[in-house]
């Protein structure tokens, strides 16, 4: 906590939760530490729906939703209306996972989670078929992580945004570095609990593991093709990225 300067007063940290990157554990720890000072983007989306208003118009008409908030969390992208309309300086945090492993984990999770919207169709498909047939699955393997975090997969533009913006980024396999940096940034002390892994779901499933599917190698090749830019970024990525503006405090 001493190595990461605290976020400047008045700033809001957007925790851009990439699916299948230990975000549930991080959300839980943030919620316990921050209480009402954390706002979830899904709660805003649900409120807009209940009010019968377009999402962006709902936010624009209610600037008070940002009052008293230190962290806004959710599966939102960096270009989300909550980010664009934020009246306070913004910083961003996110965790990335090796793209092939994340795609397999997402596939396993969805096809073993009855409450998920894609549960029905995906249970009847291999990973290769799901990527081809389901837009949601395909979108999640087309550089989805870097697009969510940077709104681009261009290497030069990503480097520019990290250098000029305020980013804290970690790797899924190095949460031991990412979480202390998050605590330091927010000035909190909260243990990071167990992630919402899919191991139990997979072990209890009657479905064959993805690696045993006859077209699994084709699925891996498809993901490598779709996410080539993201794979290259992840291969170059150090264990922790802290933008110069955040290092300076």
Quick structural summary:
The protein is of the alpha/beta class and 249 residues long. It contains 15 helices and 6 strands. The protein has helices spanning 23-34, 41-51, 55-60, 81-84, 99-111, 119-122, 127-133, 135-139, 144-150, 155-164, 175-186, 199-204, 216-226, 228-236, 244-247, and strands at residues 12-16, 38-40, 71-74, 90-96, 167-171, 240-242.
Report on the structure:
With 249 residues, the protein is an alpha/beta fold. It contains 15 helices and 6 strands. The protein has a 6-stranded mixed beta sheet with strand order 2-3-1-4-5-6, with helices on both faces. The longest helix has 13 residues. The protein is globular and about 55 Å long.
Q: Features of this protein?
A:
single chain; 249 residues; alpha/beta; six-stranded mixed beta sheet; 15 helices; 6 strands; 49% helix; globular
């Amino acid at each position: 906590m001493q190595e990461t300067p605290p976020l400047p007063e008045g700033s809001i940290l957007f925790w851009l939760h990439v699916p299948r990157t230990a975000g549930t554990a991080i959300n839980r720890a943030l919620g316990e530490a921050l209480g009402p000072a954390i706002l979830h983007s899904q709660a805003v989306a649900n409120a807009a729906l209940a009010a019968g208003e377009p999402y962006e118009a709902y936010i624009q008409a209610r600037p008070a939703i940002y009052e008293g908030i230190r962290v806004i969390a959710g599966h939102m992208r960096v270009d989300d209306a909550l980010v664009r309309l934020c009246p306070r300086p913004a910083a961003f945090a996110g965790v990335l996972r090796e793209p092939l492993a994340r795609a397999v984990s997402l596939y396993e999770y969805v096809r073993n989670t009855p409450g998920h919207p894609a549960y029905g169709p995906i249970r009847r498909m291999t990973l290769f078929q799901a990527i081809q047939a389901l837009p949601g699955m395909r979108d999640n393997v087309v550089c989805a992580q870097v697009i969510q975090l940077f709104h681009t997969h261009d290497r030069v533009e990503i480097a520019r945004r990290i250098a000029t913006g305020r980013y804290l980024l970690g790797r899924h396999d190095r949460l031991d570095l990412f979480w202390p940096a998050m605590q330091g940034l927010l000035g909190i002390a909260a243990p990071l609990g167990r992630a919402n892994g899919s191991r139990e779901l997979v072990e209890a499933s009657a479905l064959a593991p993805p690696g045993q599917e006859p077209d699994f190698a084709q699925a891996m090749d498809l993901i490598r093709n779709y996410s080539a830019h993201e794979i290259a970024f992840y291969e170059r990525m150090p264990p922790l990225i802290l933008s110069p503006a955040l290092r300076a405090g």
